[in-house]
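I had to read the description of the data format several times before I understood it. In essence, backbone conformation is discretised, so a fold becomes a row of integers matching the chain in length. I therefore recommend that a typical entry be quoted early in the introduction. For illustration, here is how one protein appears when written out as sequence plus structure tokens.

***
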Amino acid sequence: MRYLTKKHLSRRTVLRGAGAAIGLPFLESMIPAGMRRASAAAAPPTRVGFIYIPHGAVMDRFTPAATGRAFELPPVLAALEPYRERFNIVSGLKLAAAYVGESSAAENHARSSKCWLTCMPDGTGPSPASVDQVAARHIGQETALPSLELALESGASIAYSTPQTPLPMEVNPRIVFERLFGDGATPEERAARERQLSSLLDAVTVEAAALKRSLPAADRQRMDRYLADIRELERRLALAADSQLPALDVPEKPNGAPPDFEQHAALMFDLLVLAWTADLTRVATFLIARELSNRVFPQSGVNEGFHNCSHHSEVPANIDRLARLNEYHTQTTIRYLLEKLATTPDGDGSLLDHSLVLYGSGMSNSNQHDHDPLPMLLAGGASGRVRSGRHIRVPDGTPAANLLLAMLSALDVPVESFADSTGVVEI
């Protein structure tokens, strides 16, 4: 029998101690007794994320041959097989705005990421912001951070508060942690805080213990898992600090990102999941790498720079190398995130049930600098608003904005159009 009480926790309850405060995950105790979960005022919110991968993809290895539900996952997405019922692949979309302007290679690449979430040429059009910021203005105002912008490489942004105002994307996981859970304004204040708090959790241990004694078993388990995740992140960040952050001067100059790509990606995705779990933010953008990045990913088995690989000159062996990089990024980014979301309890389901995550690029065939048909994957249930497990093929040339508008609709954002949209993709 489910534990019920006449009292319930506020969704805004936090643990406090020694100047620290930690938000709580969604707990059953936050639902008033007698209220059905489906209509509870404290039901889990829907989160939304946008994850960008540059240089497109080998499209015939990203796009399934069959449509509907009876499709076989192509090689680039094969690692996502355990979650095939939790996402849709959407093919046929076009980013028309990325074709507008100078035809140089650099400009073609730059527009791929700049226009991905605005779907309008640089500094033009009716859209006042990228789609993530449109969402943040409607679903992000009740959280400490209306939106969170993360990256694994500096030098670019996919989030725009206006068509000409890119938002900075943070690459340093330690700074993200401090932004979520508190920091000092100066190096001296941060040093004093670290001396005072050997651990963020140590500061709230007494209040956490008292709260746990009043919770039912299921909520105690969720609390234990959530606090353990914070503790583990602290441990990993402390290790990174010992080797990478001996002289962190100011947050505006991040220099503590682990050099190992996989470790860096895991830390940043773990921080994103924690931020969503504690309802510190509901909107996030995540840049895997910037366009024109020539970073080498030796763990993929490919020892050539990313941008160089993307210009394969239609040579089969070169295409194979780019495809291996595509597969590697699938395994280390979106698969990692889907696993974290699917295994993190949230209300009557998981974070993946209550999230909507777009993974894709503003470029398709990078050798030709094509901006259609785009590689796009949409994961998550959006709190029951999205039917997953399908390959949705729209007519060639369908504006990518149609998918973004459909996402806004699933989030109950009251807009009738977005950028160059002509309708919505049925998701």
Summary: DSSP finds ten helices and 13 strands in the chain. The longest strand covers residues 390-399. The domain at 50-171+257-410 is CATH 3.40.720 (Alkaline Phosphatase, subunit A).
